């Protein structure tokens, strides 16, 4: 009897040991899977590049698209990015190879003439990878000037340099016109304007007949009087900002619109969103002049 009991206890210990080993192997296996996935994502083209390849394949400009999803995952034994966006009333769904950017699958709902068809054969994106430049520095300068509605004769270029931003190859273009500084970031593969910034340096507000209304307060950071009749008002400042950006007032989602004091100068700080793009404006409170602005896609 004691021998049977001993054998039973030994079997029980063996089962427990094997269960513990199985659990340990499962944990190790899970950890290895996570490590492999993390390494694959680090070596992938990146979310931003996957978005650009999908947009380029659909023939959609980034400025007119609202990206709702760009996720890294595994499908049919390979790592991919699932990209979803809406443009011109059409909803697009893309599966992009995470290693080389090839389009694996695409689908479009509410299709317009010429829209991509569901389950069409995979194609190679127009720019093979983020390491290949498809536009020149001169072309990047032309794109920036066209966006700013200026000509080469109007400006003095500081630089047009190739750089990387989050693994994406871009051109940083900087130039001046008078006392205004322009900075652009342009996708080197597609030529899309990713972000831009304008700064009217050392701007002086327009003088008003009532000197007391425009004299900066003794304390450069003191609050400004929003009821000052010399100021254009926050509603007018908002209209100036959206008009400059080419956005309808009704379409802008305002995050900030307030009067502030910057080194003794009254300014309106305006921030709003439209189609996934964040716009920031600084407007002179007296003259309504746009002192600074920038626009950047909100990732």
Q: Helix and strand layout, with pairings?
A:
Layout: H1 2-42, H2 47-58, E1 65-75, E2 78-87, E3 90-97, E4 103-109, H3 137-148, E5 156-165, E6 168-177, E7 180-187, E8 193-200, H4 211-214, H5 234-245, E9 253-262, E10 265-274, E11 277-284, E12 290-297
Antiparallel strand pairs: 1-2, 2-3, 3-4, 5-6, 6-7, 7-8, 8-12, 9-10, 10-11, 11-12
Structural commentary:
This protein has 299 residues and is an alpha+beta fold. The chain has three domains: 63 residues, Nuclear Transport Factor 2, Chain: A, CATH 3.10.450.40; 73 residues, Nuclear Transport Factor 2, Chain: A (Roll), CATH 3.10.450.40; 97 residues, Nuclear Transport Factor 2, Chain: A (Roll). The protein contains five helices and twelve strands. An eight-stranded antiparallel β-sheet has the order 5-6-7-8-12-11-10-9, with helices on one face. A hairpin with a 2-residue loop joins strand 1 and strand 2. The longest helix has 41 residues. The chain is globular, with a radius of gyration of 28 Å. About 13% of the residues have low confidence.
């Amino acid at each position: 009897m004691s021998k049977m009991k001993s054998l039973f206890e030994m079997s029980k210990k063996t089962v427990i040991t094997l269960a513990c080993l199985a659990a340990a192997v499962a944990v190790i296996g899970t950890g290895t899977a996570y490590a492999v996935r993390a390494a694959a994502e680090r070596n992938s083209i990146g979310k931003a590049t996957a978005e650009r390849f999908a947009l380029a394949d659909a023939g959609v400009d980034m400025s007119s698209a609202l990206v709702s999803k760009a996720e890294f995952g595994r499908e049919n034994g390979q790592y991919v990015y699932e990209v979803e966006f809406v443009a011109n009333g059409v909803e697009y769904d893309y599966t992009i190879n995470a290693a080389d950017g090839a389009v694996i699958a695409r689908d479009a709902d509410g299709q317009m003439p010429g829209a991509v068809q569901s389950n069409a054969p995979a194609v190679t994106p127009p720019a093979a990878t983020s390491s290949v430049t498809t536009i020149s520095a001169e072309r990047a300068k032309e794109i920036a000037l066209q966006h700013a509605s200026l000509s080469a004769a109007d400006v003095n270029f500081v630089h047009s340099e190739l750089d990387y931003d989050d693994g994406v190859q871009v051109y940083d273009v900087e130039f001046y016109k008078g006392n205004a500084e322009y900075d652009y970031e342009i996708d080197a593969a597609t030529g899309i304007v990713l972000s831009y910034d304008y700064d009217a340096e050392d701007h002086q507000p327009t003088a008003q007949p009532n000197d007391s209304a425009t004299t900066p307060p003794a304390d450069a950071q003191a609050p400004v009087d929003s009821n000052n009749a010399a100021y254009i008002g926050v509603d007018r400042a908002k209209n100036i900002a959206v008009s400059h950006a080419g956005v309808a007032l009704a379409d802008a989602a305002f995050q900030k619109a307030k009067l502030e004091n910057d080194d003794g100068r009254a300014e309106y700080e305006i921030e709003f969103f439209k189609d996934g793009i964040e716009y920031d404006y600084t407007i002179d409170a007296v003259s309504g002049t746009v002192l600074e602005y920038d626009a950047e896609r909100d990732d």
